[in-house]
Amino acid sequence: MMAVESAKDVHISVLLEETLSFFPSTLSGTFVDATLGMGGHSEAILTNCPQVHVLAIDQDREALAHANSRLKRFDDRVHLVHSNFENLSDQANRNIDGPIVGIFADLGVSSLQLDSESRGFSFRFDAPLDMRMDPESGDETVADILLKRSEEEIANIIYQFGEERASRKIARWIVDRRENGEPITTTTQLASLVSRALGGRAKDKIHPATRTFQALRIAVNRETEVLESFIADAVELLSEGGVLAIITFHSLEDRIVKRSFLRLSGRCSCSPRLPVCICGAERKLEVLTKKPIVPSETETRINSRSRSAKLRAVKKIAR
């Protein structure tokens, strides 16, 4: 496992060796890292595949700055772009001339973001409830969502993206406090409210607010909203034999990736009662991971943040 130095501590790239196994050293062409983060996976690809150039995309300028420092020794073999991976096709058309032999996305929130004391991703720090991966976007923050959305909308977000069974109770507490002139604006306020609403849930292995924080982060960054279109764009951009590998960190994203991969490998998900397929299944891919690859016990022991990671990969086939 390759360690990646950050400005604050040592960040360990999740499922690094497993990801590299899909990209042989003989690879030649352009590799797209759609979620650069701290640059660990891109660094490994550039090191192990000397004939590869990397287009690295990230919507977080702070992450780009750290990764740029790490990757600068590769000179013109790497090109960094400030953008969201939903703009993959546009960025590829602008910056790539030649075959795209690999595309990779690590969908987890980065350690840089989680360890920030000011951006609101973690309830370990008292910070404004922002959670935008691109704080320059001008989009609404989590605090804005909790201030402006209805009780039903907040409950739906927490249930859909956090799979939190007590979402309605949490939403009711948030709105009650807002209506009493005390809107939730900080991480500490939100974590405390959720803990009190749920009564602590002493039997849970995770903090009671974990699912709520996850849900609000996903919502404010539209993480699942753009995932299916990203996968479709990535498959179209890949050259024949090119590989798309994606690491997810929660079941909702993993289901989207699994479903998309199966549909694009020609697996119809329609009811057998239907006379024709309406799900759009079309064989463009070969699934390389019948089951998702998960971290080893050694990796989860070294890096607890990897414990929920799942890696899936597909290869584009001739048509």
Structure description:
With 319 residues, this protein is an alpha/beta fold. It contains 13 helices and nine strands. It has helices at residues 16-20, 40-48, 61-71, 88-95, 111-114, 142-148, 151-162, 167-179, 187-198, 210-221, 227-237, 251-264, 297-302; strands at 3-5, 10-12, 28-33, 51-58, 78-82, 100-106, 243-248, 285-287, 310-316. The strands form two sheets. Strands 5-4-3-6-7-9-8 form a seven-stranded mixed β-sheet, with helices on both faces. It is globular, with a radius of gyration of 20 Å. It starts with a strand and ends with a strand. The model is unreliable at 1-10 (pLDDT under 50).
Q: What's the mean pLDDT score?
A: 91
**Strand order across the largest sheet:** 5-4-3-6-7-9-8
Distance between the termini: 36 Å
Q: What is the H-and-E element order?
A: EEHEHEHEHEHHHHHHHEHEHE
Q: Nearest-angstrom radius of gyration?
A: 20 Å
State the secondary-structure class.
alpha/beta
Shape annotation: globular
Spans of at least 5 consecutive residues whose pLDDT stays below 50 are 1-10
Strand percentage lies at 15-25%
Helix content: 25-40%
Count of distinct strands? 9
Query: Given the structure, what is the number of helices?
Result: 13
Let me know the largest β-sheet. Answer: 7 strands, mixed
